[in-house]
Amino acid sequence: MSVDVVTFGCRLNAYEAQVISRQAQAAGLADAVVINTCAVTAEAVRQSRQAIRKLKREHPDAPIVVTGCAAQTEPKTFAHMPEVALVLGNEEKISAQAWRQHRDVLARASFGVAAEEKIAVNDIMAVRETAAHLIDGLEGRSRAFVQVQNGCDHRCTFCIIPYGRGNSRSVRRLCARGYHEIVLTGVDLTSYGGKLPGAPKLGTLVKQILKHVPELARLRLSSIDSVEADRDLLDAFATDARLMPHLHLSLQAGDDLILKRMKRRHSRADAMAFCEAVRRLRPDVVFGADIIAGFPTETEDMFARSLALVDECGLTHLHVFPFSPRPGTPAMRMPQVEREVIKDRARRLREKGEAALRRHLDAQVGRSHRVLTESRELGRTEHFTRARLATPMQPGIILDVTITGHDGRQLLAA
After folding, report:
1. Which of 5, 48, 54, 218 is the most exposed, having the fewest neighbouring CB atoms within 10 Å of its CB?
2. In sequence order, what are the beta bridge partners of 88?
3. Beta strand pairing status for 398-406 and 411-413?
4. What is the pLDDT of residue 163?
5. Backbone angles phi, psi at 371, to 5 degrees
6. Distance from C-alpha of 363 to C-alpha of 398, rounded to nearest angstrom
7. Strands of the 246-252 sheet, one edge to the other
């Protein structure tokens, strides 16, 4: 074993896992396990702690290093775990120098190290820029993730992420060699370019990639904030089929008062207008969205507006999050909704999402699609809909297939 990185959370973490492995090994680290954590919910933190205990049982002689957003926001939580040898912050985890500086702590781990000595976490808000970390691709994945933005300057009242990722830090990335699909990713992707000379928008970057990398078959965006979508980005959706007809939106709620209390910058009407505008430009577009169930002060009528938004925006791929109060966020100080009510609303949202997905799957039967294979038996269509292949194929290739049916969760392709 060299450096085994176990990743939780977002696509950006998946990208950074490759940088972590490379930098740690460059610093001379070997036979270690790194947990790259997520802090978006309390459940994500719990899962990370559970994984740490499990991995220590499986690799008793390997030092466990914890990093990522949960390590950044709750370093003491992990430092006090006896299984953990070192806690690295989000700035430190991608620095070979930081890994070299703390090798002595890892060397002493088996003899017992005080919790305070285990922590190497800087103030992420003081970080103003980071160097680009280019990688050759993601091992075992059929698509490559190119990080073009990091951090978030917004302060949504429910969100702990700015305290884990810091203020916005934009970098320019080129597509990774040998991959048919590139995913542009970032914590707040649509804020790309705000601190670059000339303040180019995300749409400018998208158009430049499509223009200057003609051999790229598919370009995809990770989650975006619709209120920041610029004219060039919309024009790219309308004019270049290589930009995949799938957008995942950070909507969070469908009630205006809840959106205001979340400090979101869009209204319900804005969300609906955006979906309608993109659909006019690209009729085959499919939308996904994040929606939170049971945000503080949410009444049944307010929740009903979030539920109705699924149909009104024509959402297909729904990511439902039961509200989870995070220490240090304004939402934690607001009047809370009872946990059982939150669970019930999350269940109803998921059921709504499952029904929307089934309608989408029904509509694809008999149609032709181009599927990017992720494994020998599974792939993704242009709309990021999962498809099971009738015949095993090599991962990482694009196939022309016909959809013969579905099982309620994925398409069946021949």
Report:
1. 54
2. 120
3. antiparallel
4. 42
5. -110, 130
6. 22
7. 246-252, 286-293, 315-322
Could you tell me which residues come within 8 angstroms of residue 306 by beta carbon, excluding any fewer than 6 positions away?
A: 253, 254, 255, 258, 291, 293, 349
Q: Which two tokens stand for residue 256?
A: 């205006």
**Which residues make Cβ contacts (< 8 Å) with residue 4, sequence separation at least 6?**
32, 33, 34, 59, 62
> What does the angle CA 262 – CA 322 – CA 346 come to, to the nearest 5 degrees?
115
Largest alpha-carbon pair distance within the chain? 64
What CA dihedral angle connects 43, 44, 46 and 52, to 10 degrees?
Answer: 160
Whose tokens are 């006896």? That residue is 82
389, two tokens = 């292949």
Q: Is the pLDDT of residue 201 over 70?
A: yes
What was the pLDDT predicted at 148? Answer: 60
User: Which residues partner with 318 through β-bridges?
Assistant: 289
Residue 21 main-chain phi, psi, to 5 deg: -60, -45
Kind of pairing, strands 3-7 and 144-147? unpaired
Per residue in 216-270, pLDDT tens?
A: 889 999 888 888 899 999 999 999 999 999 999 999 999 999 999 999 999 999 9
Q: How far apart are CA 145 and CA 71, in angstroms?
A: 23
Residue type, 9: G
* Angle subtended at Cα 97 by Cα 27 and Cα 77, rounded to the nearest 5 degrees: 95
> Are the C-beta atoms of residues 173 and 148 closer than 8 Å to each other?
yes
Phi (first) and psi of residue 183, to 5 degrees: -110, 120
Q: From CA 17, how far away is CA 36, in angstroms rounded?
A: 7
HEC per residue, the chain: CCEEEEECCCHHHHHHHHHHHHHHHHCCCCCEEEEEECCCCHHHHHHHHHHHHHHHHHCCCCCEEEEEHHHHHCHHHHHCCCCEEEEECCCHHHCHHHHHHCHHHHHCHHHCCCHHHHEECCCHHHCCCCCCCCCCCCCCCCCEEEECEECCCCCCCCCCHHHHHCCCEECCCCCCCCCCEEEEECCCHHHCCCCCCCCCCHHHHHHHHHHHCCCCCEEEECCECHHHCCHHHHHHHHHCCCECCEEEEEEECCCHHHHHHHCCCCCHHHHHHHHHHHHHHCCCCEEEEEEEECCCCCCHHHHHHHHHHHHHCCEEEEEEEECCCCCCCHHHHCCCCCHHHHHHHHHHHHHHHHHHHHHHHHHHCCCEEEEEECCCCEEECCCCCEEEECCCCCCCCEEEEEEEEECCCCEEEC
pTM over 0.85: no
Instruction: Report how far residue 271's alpha carbon sits from residue 279's, in angstroms, rounded to the nearest whole number.
Output: 12
